[in-house]
Amino acid sequence: MSKIWSIYEQDIRNITTNWAAAVIILGLVLLPSLYAWFNIEASWDPYSSTQGVQIAVTTLDQGAVIQGKHLNLGDEIKKSLQENTNIGWVFVPHDEAQKGLRHGDYYAALEIPADFSTRIASVLTSAPVKAEILYSVNEKINAVAPKITSKGASSVTEEVNRNFVKTANGTIFKIFNEIGVELEKELPLMNKMKGLIFQLVSMFPEINQAADTAVRDLAEGQKIVAQVQQKIPDAVRLAGQGADFASSLIHFLDQTGSALDQAAPQIKNALVQTRDSLGAASRIAADLKGLKPEELSAELPRLEIASQDLAKARDAAGTFLSLIDRLSQLNPGGPLSRVADHMRGISDSVQSLGTKLGQLKQAVQNGSANANDLVNSFIQTSNRISGDLDQLVSSYDSEIVPAISGAVGRAKETAATSRSLLTDAQNSLPKVQKILTDASKGLAVGTRNAELIRGQLPSAEANIKKISERIKAFEKDGRLEDLIRLLQLNYQKESDFFAEPVILTEHKLFPIPNYGSAMSPFFTTLSLWVGGLLLVSMLTVEVHSPSEFQSYQIYLGRFLTFGTLALLQSVFVSTGDLFILGTYAKEKLAFVLFSLLLSLVFMLMIYTLVSVFGNVGKAMAIVLLVLQLAGSGGTFPIQVTPLFFQKIYPFLPFTYGIGLLREAVGGMVPDLVIRDILILLIYAMLALLLGLGLKQQINRLAAPLVSKAKKSGIIH
Predict the structure, then answer these.
(1) What are the boundaries of each domain within the chain?
(2) How far is CA 445 from its chain centroid?
(3) Are strands 134-137 and 54-59 parallel, antiparallel or unpaired?
(4) Fewest beta carbons within 10 Å, which of 254, 318, 376, 508?
(5) CA atoms within 13 A on the CB side of 17
(6) How far is CA 173 from CA 19, 330, 474, 488, 509, in A?
(7) How far is Cα 378 from Cα 387, in angstroms, rounded to an integer?
(8) Strands 108-112, 64-66: parallel, antiparallel or unpaired by DSSP?
(9) Is CATH 3.40.1710 the classification given to domain 54-187?
């Protein structure tokens, strides 16, 4: 180990003590940085200066007349291009454009023909013809320029197409919008007419039947009018009799009111009797509360008395309810109806109370243990009914009696109104007689007209059915309201939509702000390999006294020197990328560390090839460089390269070196980082195995060949 380290120390001492060697070494350390920086700077934003790519533009358009207006679309395109600074548009005559294109003054030429506007205007005719823009390109000037000029030419046609679609659609949608506004104004009337038509179609069977019936009824009406005219004298007599009956009814109600006033105390007495009888039964039940079953059996006679009291209460309640029911009929829904409903509930409760008393007597006779529960239930129900009766009794004079009087009064008013109406009818009957006479004449005329209408109905029905079928056929494809809503859409927005119906929304998963930063992984990786080649080209991999050291000691000791210089190259390249050029890297520290790893691995591979194979190893390293330039996917996607490079792509160190730096620039995916590092370490291990295992044998075998080659005087 000490001998390995001594080789390294001697190399460092020689570099630091020999200024010429130090200058050369410094140049070797810095040169890869310059190689990377110049290439990255040149690639920073190559498409930002395309205004220097000149395209000749010639417009020969003669224009066209569209709807009475002269339009020259060629001039419009020219104005649009004059505002477009992305490409160097040069406006020249036709001959000058073609000459400049042939001599390489222009990369391409656009020519707008004389009939350009005329062809565009043909869209309004029955035979539209597509317009053309002539595009010529000189592809021998530069390989990339035709792609740029083609994009510029395509953008012109896209802009023309978009503006044409936008303008044409805008005009169409504006007309549709105006139609929609007018239709919306008339929509209620149209819907009403549509409904009437559908209704008429559905009603025609009834209309036909009604027409037939009308003819028959008119004839029948004539007969009825004749009969009514005959009955008018009877109607006069009946009206007189009705008025007399109403007078008699008023007199009867007067007498009834007096009788009710006299009977009011008796009615109230029935209500009071109900309450008192119920109270007597309740008091008997209250005396039984808390008695034992054997004590209750002695009270059976009193329970019989309570049953009699309840029967009296039930009868009295029925009497009161019957009177109130009859009186409430004079004013249905009035206060007396509510009193009757209330009393009906009380009567039902009294009936239920009788049932409970029967159950109590049965329980006492059987000595049942739940007799006291029945007593309590009886008392609760009785108290509730007594409360309701007390309320009725207290409100009898103030509410019920006035309600009875009011019902009688309203009945008298109704009778008086009826008498008045009958008297008026009696007086109007002569006029009715005259009206009937006129109606008889009108019915005769109506019968003749109805027969005429009935004869024209079949023709009208057929026409309306045709209209209805056409409306239904239209509505199968959409309602009129939907059509109007579509027509009323904002015509400017609709025009913009159809001019560009789809917008591409870009989402950058790993955003990199400029092309130079995106290319920095490739040029940094390339510069590190080139740096290794420079080192093995300028510095020797052997020591001056090889006999003092073992083969592996020379290999490892001298690699320490090459590895140190490679690391310095990597530091200058990576930090210069980040802080001098300002390239973007999401993970700056990782970018520097990954560069250090790449420099060590690449240096070990190149150093091993040269250490083992000598100058042949240098050639092998250069061949690897050439293969990796095209086969690593550093500039173009590997899928667009020839099949050979796609096959060797997975086996090239650049593939994983560039991939590792791209992770640091765009954003790291851990499993990809681990994969790239592991594969690079595998390359390093293979290089070590080759250097340690085969260096001595291959050097011994190649010594005669190398000696013979040196004697030629042209091989080092």
Answers:
(1) 2-42+513-708, 54-187, 208-474
(2) 68
(3) unpaired
(4) 508
(5) 6
(6) 83, 73, 21, 9, 40
(7) 14
(8) unpaired
(9) yes
